[in-house]
């Protein structure tokens, strides 16, 4: 799982922020860049839908597993009119680590972003999707994303046992989403069925990502603790 390294080094990187003094504007720029990373992942993911091992292909495009990947310059195009000193201060702390840079966070958020937005657009028209299905599936997708993000928080803080438990909960919710996607209402209605054909691979990719992380967490938990005496 080299392209989805759960050992993100968050503990040291978080502490290494040290005396970094950013104002609200600096953090807004930073968060905007991380939002761009999620959108970029989704764009690569859509481009690689028919590619074998697409998760690894997208991770390669994101330059994960080759050291820290850098953001596109385009994300800062609208900030060129800011003071040079502010830009210098921001650039000095640009490599600071937060959860938003975790590859598992980015990939999970990106795939759910594609699923939820496409389903919302379709389900808003009551003539295309039965409303009970529209509400139930949207709630299931949202709940799955929320639980997965909680798991990634636990992973990021090195609590592997809690991360496993939360990822298992996320998988349970994912199974509920799959059940709704495979239900008669979703199959019988033409528009819902078309959405289903695109959604199924994405749902299975989420499961694949989380199962990889769970396996690595269990390896960490089974690793003998060095005798410090």
How many β-strand stretches? 0
Average predicted confidence as pLDDT: 84
- Using the CA coordinates, give the radius of gyration: 20 Å
Please trace the helix and strand order, writing H or E for each element.
HHHHHHHHH
Oligomer: single chain
- Uncertain regions spanning at least 5 consecutive residues: 66-83
Which structural class should the secondary elements be placed in? mainly alpha
Query: What fraction of the residues are assigned to beta strands by DSSP?
Result: under 5%
Give the overall shape, derived from the CA principal axes. globular
**What's the tally of helices?**
9
Tell me roughly what share of residues is in helical segments.
Answer: 55-70%
Terminal Cα separation, in Å? 33 Å
Largest sheet, if any?
A: none
Which SSEs are present, and which pair or pack?
Blueprint lengths: L9 H6 L8 H24 L6 H8 L22 H9 L10 H21 L7 H26 L3 H22 L2 H5 L1 H33 L7
Helix pairs in contact: 2-5, 5-6, 5-9, 6-7, 7-9
